[in-house]
Design a protein that fits this description.
The chain is of the alpha+beta class. It has 17 helices and seven strands. The protein has three domains: about 90 residues, Double Stranded RNA Binding Domain (2-Layer Sandwich); about 100 residues, DNA polymerase, domain 1 (Orthogonal Bundle), CATH 1.10.150; about 180 residues, hpI Integrase, Chain A (Orthogonal Bundle).
Length: about 400
């Protein structure tokens, strides 16, 4: 039998040789001094030999344990060599969660705007990868996912948790389809496993007098021309701040008095049409005459070849003394929604103009320009309403 010291002190010879332990285990020493464990056995009467790994990475004790496990396979009628090959193929097919996420994301990243995609990837890098990123998807359990999600839940980031949970499920479902795992470990997590998500309401104003005061305050902004124009047009266009500041001149259809935004620029990934009134068209014409940019309607005053940042609008509002508890830049949409309902416009028309999601995909595709005549009327009346309040 071999001992640790004997294995350690085995010397190199002119040619390869082996020294036996027992029950088929032996250490092999090459002419270059490389030591490898070997296991000799018979399967169906035929002699065979399998490598157990190199010494000292595989110690004598570990080599004996591997040999014993292989003898156990032989007692069950399993060829250790075949078993080893199968395990190797299985390991090669395995992916860590991070690898599975990256493969899935590469196939689907065109579904989101670059800003949204970057924000979501950052959430995974911060809250998910440090805990399960290096785990194989096959080994991740429902308890593992509950643990990482609850850590997010305790931080009070319910909206981020909702999106991360949805993306995680899609990654696992992709692995199910690929045959890497049998089920999605996030699928059966009870809805009451986490704190109830609070509805997110943006601070806004809805009474005619408060809207009038806000419009007059905004007219007094003394900052950059581009920011002032974007801020004062925001109530008229009902776009999200990110959609507004990135407007391009190619999207403004002057002959037809509409803005046409491609799907890849919209949050819901659906093409969008914004009818614009004569007053708004006039403002666009004035901005274009300024010649600040041939591409962007609201070009950055500080950086070439880009547009102003949504944060510029928020800072402009705050510089005028309007607090976050009183109004946010997202509040323009809520302000308009409230008043348009009171003005008697139909829900379908209002919601379509706000570019909210449509649960029925077929209906959503059909609705791209549906209600356009009513939306033209609504946006013109809304523009006139704001003009009257801003006097």
């Amino acid at each position: 039998m071999l001992t640790d010291s004997r294995v350690k002190n085995l010397k190199t010879k002119d040619k390869l040789y082996r020294v036996a332990d027992k029950n088929g285990l032996a250490i092999e020493v090459s002419a270059k001094g490389v030591k490898k464990w070997r296991f000799r056995y018979r399967y169906n009467g035929k002699p065979s030999m399998i490598s157990l790994g190199k010494y000292p990475a595989i110690s004598l004790i570990k080599a004996r344990a591997i040999r014993d496990s292989y003898q156990g396979l032989l007692s069950q009628g399993i060829n250790p060599s075949v078993h080893k090959q199968r395990e190797k193929r299985k390991q090669q097919q395995q992916k860590t969660f991070k690898e599975a996420f990256e493969a899935w994301f590469c196939r689907h990243e065109d579904e989101w705007t670059p800003r949204t995609a970057k924000k979501q990837v950052s959430a995974f890098e911060r809250y998910i990868f440090p805990y399960i990123g290096d785990m194989s998807v096959e080994s991740i359990t429902q308890i593992d996912m509950l643990h990482v999600f609850r850590m997010m839940d305790e931080k009070g980031i319910s909206e981020t948790l909702k999106k991360v949970r949805g993306w995680s499920s899609r990654v696992f479902c992709d692995c199910v389809v690929s045959g890497l795992i049998k089920f999605d470990p996030t699928r059966d997590l009870p809805k009451d496993s986490f704190k109830k998500q609070k509805s997110k309401h943006y601070a806004t104003v809805t009474s005619p007098s408060d809207i009038s005061d806000l419009l007059k305050i905004m007219r007094g902004y003394k900052g950059a021309y581009q920011v002032k124009e974007a801020l004062n047009l925001a109530p008229y266009l009902l776009l999200r701040p990110g959609e507004l500041v990135a407007l391009e001149w190619r999207e403004v259809d002057f002959p037809n008095n509409v803005i046409r935004i491609d799907a890849d620029r919209m949050k819901m990934k659906k093409a969008h049409i914004v009818p614009i009134s004569a007053q708004v068209t006039s403002r666009f014409e004035e901005i274009k005459k300024s010649g600040l940019s041939t591409k962007y309607v609201f070009p950055s005053p500080n950086r070439n070849n880009t547009h102003i940042n949504p944060e510029s609008l928020r800072r402009a509002i705050r510089s005028l003394g309007v607090t976050k508890e009183q109004f946010t830049t997202h509040g323009f949409r809520a302000m308009a929604s409230t008043q348009l309902y009171e003005m008697g416009f139909r829900e379908d028309v209002i919601e379509r103009q706000l570019a909210h999601s449509e649960s029925n995909k077929v209906k959503a595709a059909y609705n791209h320009a549906e209600h356009l005549n009513e939306r033209v009327l609504m946006m013109n009346e809304w523009s006139a309403y704001l003009e009257n309040l801003g006097i």
